[in-house]
Amino acid sequence: MKKSLLVLGSLFFGVSAFAQKVEFDQYTLDNGLHVILHQDKSAPVVVTSVMYHVGAKDENPERTGFAHFFEHLLFEGTKNIERGEWFKIVTANGGNNNANTSDDRTYYYEVFPSNNLELGLWMESERLMHPIINQIGVTTQNEVVKEEKRLRMDNQPYGQVFTEVKKNLFTKHPYRWMPIGSMEHLDAATLEEFLAFNKKFYIPNNAVLVVAGDFEKEQAKKWIKQYFGPIAKGTPVTKTKIEEAPITKEIKGEYQDPNIQLPMLIEAYRTPSMKTRDARVLDMISSLLSGGKSSRLYKKIVDQKKMALEMSSFSMSQEDYGVYIVYGIPMQGVTSETLVKEIDEEIEKLQTELISERDFQKLQNVFEKQYVDENATIEGVAENLASYYLLYGDVELINKNIEIYRSITREEIRDVAKKYLGKNQRLILDYVPAKKANN
To answer: How far apart are CA 159 and CA 260, in angstroms?
Structure first.
C-alpha cells in the first residue's frame, strides 16, 4: 500500500513539475486588434493564428450556418492570393493550416518553419483586409458544406445526437442549432448577405492575433504593425446574451436514425457558462461519473452488470451555457428505463455523499494531466491563449485555470451535482433505429 501511495505521489509531483508557466506579452493595435506573443524556442516552428469572436450564436435564425460557411469561404482567395492558391502556398513553404468553428468563435491558424513567420502574418492579414467574396466562391463552398453535412451528420451513425440535444435544451438561445446550420438557409442567402456578414464580424476589433513559437519579438511586432496596422477598425460588435428559462420539468424525446441498428439512451443537462466556477466543478463531476473506462458509470453498468455495450459522456462548455451529455448503448433486452435507473443511482450518491479522498485525489491528478496536455504543443498554447482572451476575458487563465480546479472541494462536488443534475432539469432522449416502412 505504501509503495502504491509513493508511486501515485511521484506521478502527481511529476505532472505538476512539468506544467511550466506560459509566458506571454500582449498589446492592442490602434484598430482594436489584440495581439498576444508567446516565445518558445524549443523547436524551429511558429504558429500564426487569428480567432474571431463570431460563431453560430451570432447568426440570423433565418440564416444559420453562416459562421461555419465563412470558415470555408475565407480560404477561397484574396486580392493578392489567387483562388485555389492558399493551400499551395502554405504547403510549398513547409507549413500546414486549418480552421474550425464553434457556437462562439471561428479560429484560423498556420504552422510554419520559424523562418516563414512573415508569410504567415501576411496571409492572415490578407484574409482580414482583402478577402474575395464572390458568387463563384459561395457556390463552390456551398457544395463543400453540403457534402460535409452528409458525411458527418446525415449519413453518420448517431450523427444527429447533438442536433437533437441542443434543440430540446434550448428554445430561445441560438445554441439551439448546430454550427453547420441549415442548407436551405445557405441556399436562400444572397451574395449581399455574405458580404454584410463579413463586414460586420471579420474586423480587427473583433479578433485576437496570436504568434507562438520560435521568433524574435521585436521583428514580429514590426511585421504585425506593417501588415495588420493599416486595416480599418470596424463598427464595434455588440453582443446580448439571450437568457433561457430554467428547466423545471423533465423533457422526453425520441429520434429515429436510419443509420443505426442499436439504440442509444441519452441524458442531457443544461449547465452554466464555462466562465463560472460551477462549470469547472461539473467538469470534475463529468470525469468522475463517465469519463473513461475507470469512471463510475462505465465500471458499474458496462463492466460489472453487463447492461450496456458503452457508457460515456460529453461536456460541451461554451461561453453562455454548457451542455452535459451522458449516453449509453444498452445490451439487448435492457430497456432505456433500466439504464436511467442505474445512472440516477450514481447521480444521487454524488448528491448525498462526499466522494472518497482517494477518488478526489484521482480527480485532481486527471485535471493536472489534462492541463499539461493542453499546453504540451505550441499549437495548443496558441489556441488556449486566444480562447482565454476572447471567450473568458482573461489571458492569465492559461496559468491560473488549474488553480481553480485545485481549489474545488468535495463538498462543492456534492452541492453542484445537487444544483444542476436534478431529474426535473434534464432531457431523456431515446435515440433509436428508424422504423422500417410497411410495404
So the answer is: 10
Q: What is the pLDDT along the chain (439 residues), one digit of tens a residue?
A: 333 333 334 343 344 434 579 999 999 999 999 999 999 999 999 999 999 999 999 999 999 999 999 999 999 999 999 999 999 999 999 999 999 999 999 999 999 999 999 999 999 999 999 999 999 999 999 999 999 999 999 999 999 999 999 999 999 999 999 999 999 999 999 999 999 999 999 999 999 999 999 999 999 999 999 999 999 999 999 988 899 999 999 999 999 999 999 999 999 999 999 999 999 999 999 999 988 888 999 999 999 999 999 998 888 889 999 999 999 999 999 999 999 999 999 999 999 999 999 999 999 999 999 999 999 999 999 999 999 999 999 999 999 999 999 999 999 999 999 999 999 999 999 999 998 766 5
- DSSP three-state, residue 101: strand
Nearest to 39 by CA among 372, 371, 385: 385
Query: Would residue 134 be called left, alpha or beta, if left means φ above 0 and alpha means ψ between -120 and 50 degrees?
Result: beta
Query: Which whole-number Å values give the CA distances from 193 to 78, 143, 185, 204, 376, in the listed order?
Result: 19, 18, 11, 20, 40
Backbone angles phi, psi at 389, to 5 degrees: -70, -55
Per CATH, is 23-228 categorized as 3.30.830.10? Answer: yes
CATH architecture of 251-433: 2-Layer Sandwich (3.30)
**Which letter, b or e, does each residue of 165-174 get, where b requires 16 or more Cβ atoms within 10 Å of its Cβ?**
bbbbbbeebb
Joined together, the cell numbers standing for residue 187 give 441556399
Sheet holding 45-52, edge to edge: 25-28, 34-39, 207-213, 45-52, 106-113, 96-101
Task: Kindly list the domain boundaries of the chain, sorted by start residue.
Answer: 23-228, 251-433
**What's the chain's length in residues?**
439
